[in-house]
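User: Please run a holo structure prediction.
Assistant: Happy to. Please share the sequence and the ligand.
User: Here you go; the ligand is iron/sulfur cluster.
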Amino acid sequence: MVVTIDPSSGFCFGVKRAIEQAEKILDKEGKLYCLGDIVHNKAEMERLEGIGLVSVGRDNLDNLKDVPVLFRAHGEPPSSYLKADENRLLLTDATCPIVKKLQDKIRKAWEEMKERGGQVVIFGSPGHPETIGLRGQTEGGAMVLQTPGDLEKINPAAPVELFSQTTMNTEEYMQLASNLRNRMRDHFAGHSVPLKVHKTICGQISGRIPRIRKFASSHDVLVFVGGSQSSNARVLFNHCREVNERSWFVTGPHEVKAEWFSGAGSAGVCGATSTPRWLMEQVAERIRELPPWK
Ligand code: SF4
């Protein structure tokens, strides 16, 4: 049986870059504090903790002084940078460059909206670290909407600059923009609607669904590797299931079962944006080693 690993599965560029930066520091220092989990995958977290990475919450930042600290790919609000300065932390800022750019755009939009009496709106999860960092660029003044129908908080008679957390669903974001435009149209009859929609969903995420569906449908059996807590993993796995009913979800090689591959000529291994490549390789190796199943 031919076993193939999906070349486009695994860490996105921002997470990969943050982990490489962390590994470099750990190599030199032996210990590094990271504000929040650097990646939502238990196996990868255990590996990094094994070489000295310590995850801390924002509340614990107060207790750290003069130690190396990393800000992960999701980015941080300005208050975290102030705290790092105050506590003389040796800061490595691993904020993804795409998130950094988005933060800059939101900050500029906020300045402009303040002058024009307008609003900055972010489509995202209020508790998600990236959204906390984005909202932080607006002195906490931006509104966060979680669903396309969640429009009540917005004043339809004032200008709006609309942004999205980089990992949101594209269709839902477009739906939200269209709902908002329709609502604002009533207040600006005969004039152009002062709504600016910024396309800020990351291409590394939005392109992944069609790619993974194609990969899943081109193999007899599909094994998806992901963390049991990862929502991205569940969403992507469901897409695989839709196009290939012989799709299985595992958190590691120990969960792979020989009977799944009965009569199969090919098996594909893929994963979420939080799945490390080495874990997918271990799963592929396990499949190759399985005794034939009758
Ligand atoms: S913006 Fe894209 S590349 Fe950067 S961390 Fe988010 S998903 Fe990854």
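The pocket of iron/sulfur cluster is lined by residues 12-15, 73, 96, 98-99, 166-167, 202, 204-205 (CB under 6 Å).
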